[in-house]
């Protein structure tokens, strides 16, 4: 026959998050996956989460950008993200996808004709594919809020897919940045598969240093006009009507001749 034993003393021991193991690996908790200045986005997330840990990710990139501040890295897990566009990136914020072939961004059905990303000074985008868009993927905000900056936005390791005459991967309008700023974007390893659209467009004294830009099926691969300046290296136009087009210029200075000397 069994005996009933009553314990009159309770031993309490604090267990840290790293001590809770599953198959010899720490169980994912908020305590052991939170890092300063990092916001996580994942398909199993929720925009009501704070996004500050792997255990509490945001669901959308828009949700992450709403709480991001200068110095923040937004890390996006693999998946397809239907975003209410445009996505405004605050200054000095980085967007890092898991991989260009596993992170897909496209406009939500409620914003099918919107631009995708509005870039500001010091912003950085890496490792994503943008598809099914009908406007500009990367550009300055049209309201001029890019302001004065001396560190240009940097876009790297990105692919775009579209089938629309208005689809443009990168649109740099120098008039939308402060005249004293660089008025430019830095581009590297970008593939633009925009059937009937454009790859890179620059206007109004815009500036860009571009390496490994590949345009496929674009009506115009690269369009540079109204005083813009482009340095281009290691790039290619595979299929399309026009590879590179430069048109016109602007008069930057005016005045009167007061006299001449030998």
Quick tags:
two-stranded antiparallel ribbon, single chain, mainly beta, 16-stranded parallel β-sheet
Description:
- It is elongated, with a radius of gyration of 25 Å.
- The protein starts with 20 loop residues before the first strand and ends in a 15-residue tail after the last strand.
- The strands form two sheets. The protein has a 16-stranded parallel β-sheet that branches.
- The protein has one helix at residues 61-67; strands spanning 21-22, 25-26, 38-41, 73-76, 79-83, 87-88, 94-97, 103-107, 117-118, 124-131, 136-139, 154-162, 168-173, 184-194, 198-203, 207-225, 229-233, 236-247.
- It is mostly beta strands.
- A hairpin with a 2-residue loop joins strand 1 (21-22) and strand 2 (25-26).
Low-confidence segments: none
Shape: elongated
How far apart are the termini?
A: 123 Å
Instruction: Indicate the mean pLDDT.
Output: 91
Strand content: 35-45%
Helix and strand layout, with pairings?
Blueprint: E1 21-22, E2 25-26, E3 38-41, H1 61-67, E4 73-76, E5 79-83, E6 87-88, E7 94-97, E8 103-107, E9 117-118, E10 124-131, E11 136-139, E12 154-162, E13 168-173, E14 184-194, E15 198-203, E16 207-225, E17 229-233, E18 236-247
Parallel strand pairs: 3-4, 4-7, 5-8, 6-9, 7-10, 8-10, 9-11, 10-12, 11-13, 12-14, 13-15, 14-16, 15-16, 16-17, 16-18
Antiparallel strand pairs: 1-2
Structure described in brief:
The chain is mainly β and 262 residues long. Helix content is 3%, strand content 42%. It is built from 1 helix and 18 strands.
């Amino acid at each position: 026959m069994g005996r009933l034993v009553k314990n009159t003393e309770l031993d309490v021991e604090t267990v840290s998050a790293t001590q809770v193991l599953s198959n010899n690996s720490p169980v994912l908790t908020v305590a052991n996956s939170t890092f300063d200045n990092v916001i996580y986005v994942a398909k199993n997330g929720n925009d009501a989460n704070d996004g500050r840990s792997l255990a509490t990710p945001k669901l959308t990139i828009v949700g992450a950008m709403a709480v991001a501040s200068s110095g923040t890295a937004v890390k996006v897990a693999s998946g397809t993200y239907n975003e209410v566009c445009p996505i405004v990136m605050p200054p000095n914020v980085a967007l890092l996808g898991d991989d260009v072939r596993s992170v897909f961004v496209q406009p939500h059905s409620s914003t099918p004709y919107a631009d995708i990303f509005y870039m500001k000074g010091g912003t950085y985008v890496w490792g994503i594919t943008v598809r099914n868009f009908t406007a500009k993927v990367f550009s300055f905000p049209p309201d001029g809020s890019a302001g004065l900056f001396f560190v240009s936005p940097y876009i790297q390791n990105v692919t775009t897919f579209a089938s629309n005459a208005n689809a443009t991967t990168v649109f740099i309008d120098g008039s939308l940045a402060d005249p004293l700023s660089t008025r430019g974007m830095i581009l590297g390893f970008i593939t633009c598969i925009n059937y009937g659209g454009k790859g890179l467009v620059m206007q109004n004294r815009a500036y860009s240093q571009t390496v490994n830009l590949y345009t496929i099926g674009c009506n115009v691969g690269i369009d540079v006009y109204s005083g813009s300046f482009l340095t281009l290296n290691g790039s290619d136009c595979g299929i399309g009507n026009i590879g590179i087009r430069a048109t016109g210029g602007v008069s930057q200075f005016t005045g009167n001749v007061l006299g001449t000397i030998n």
